Amino acid sequence: MMQEKWKGLVFLDVKEDLIENDTDLGHGLLLRKATMEELSNEGSEWHFRSFSERRGTLGLLNQRLPLTGNRPGGHPISDPSQWRHAVIECSDPNLFYWNVNIAFSIAEVDLRMGYVTLESGATSTPYLEFSMLNIRNSLGAMFVDHELPSACKVNLLKKDLNLIIPKLNMEFPSEVRKIISLYLSLDNLPDSSPFKVLGYFSVIEGLLSHSPQPEDRMDSIQRQLIRNINLLNNRLKLIDRDINFSAFGETNITKVLKLLYAYRSAVAHGGKIETPIKAISKLRQTKEETDHLWVHDWLRLMTKRLILAAIIEPELVMDLK
């Protein structure tokens, strides 16, 4: 693998305050606003458009393009002050951009790059691996209701990168790498797809369970998951990255996980998902609506935290299986 510096265009929308100033993310990574020259590059513009077409979001503001001619499609804006395209610039030639994208995908703040230019002039298009990222329904991102990355989350992002990036440059079990690949592949599905929830449980089960022994009724997959998630969550508390069970008030963690598993089973077996969603809503004790997308978002964050635990302590996680 050739070792060289690189920079990548972030293909996700961000809040303006995130790129008002350049931000040092550590590890030789600089987050900054994209320049006119970078955005008007024929290659980057073509791939922005291609990504938007795949998502069904060609004319929306979260894919902003400068005015570069009379090419069809897109939403050209000639005033640079209105852009909020971000760039990740890497000065460390030993840091592979694929590992940085993996780190962003697991971190609380997702800034995955879709078009990367190497110092030699070669390019790469990682966006092909996450065509439906942050799409809330199969019609495209017409109803953007998720929180955009903002300046207030920068410290959390730095903390996550410090936990993840050094580990990705080391050898750890191939089983963990396979699980990370499975997790990343789920971004080819819109968030509204019930199969995505099944995918998150496949990731979790792949990390934390084994095929149960028929003669041991205490060895069910559900029991294994509850036991191991509790253990890893206690470990994550030590670094202030524990799973957000506080969303369910004072409810026992075991009860929460059983309800979430019931939701998973309803999806898997063609049952009524409304029943477990109502039960989950009661646990939350809030007027905020609890629907499939809320469950999706919560499960996605839990999946991220468990993958983080596997990256930090891979031997422990493998032993739990």
What does the model show?
Helices cover 45% and strands 8% of the residues. It starts with 5 loop residues before the first strand and ends with a helix. It has 11 helices and 6 strands. Strands 2-3-4-1-5-6 form a 6-stranded antiparallel beta sheet, with helices on both faces. β5 (113-118) and β6 (123-124) form a beta hairpin. It folds into 2 domains: 6-167, no CATH class; 174-320, no CATH class. Residues 60-75 have low confidence and may be disordered. The protein is an alpha+beta fold and 321 residues long. The chain is globular and about 65 Å long.
Strand composition percent: 5-15%
With strands numbered from the N-terminus, the spatial order across the biggest sheet is 2-3-4-1-5-6
Largest sheet: 6 strands, antiparallel
Helix content: 40-55%
Q: Would you identify the regions where 5 or more consecutive residues have pLDDT less than 50?
A: 60-75
* Integer tally of domains: 2
Distance between the termini: 34 Å
Element layout with pairings:
Elements: E1 6-10, E2 23-26, E3 29-33, H1 36-40, H2 42-55, E4 86-90, H3 97-106, E5 113-118, E6 123-124, H4 154-168, H5 174-185, H6 194-208, H7 221-237, H8 253-268, H9 274-284, H10 292-312, H11 314-320
Antiparallel strand pairs: 1-4, 1-5, 2-3, 3-4, 5-6
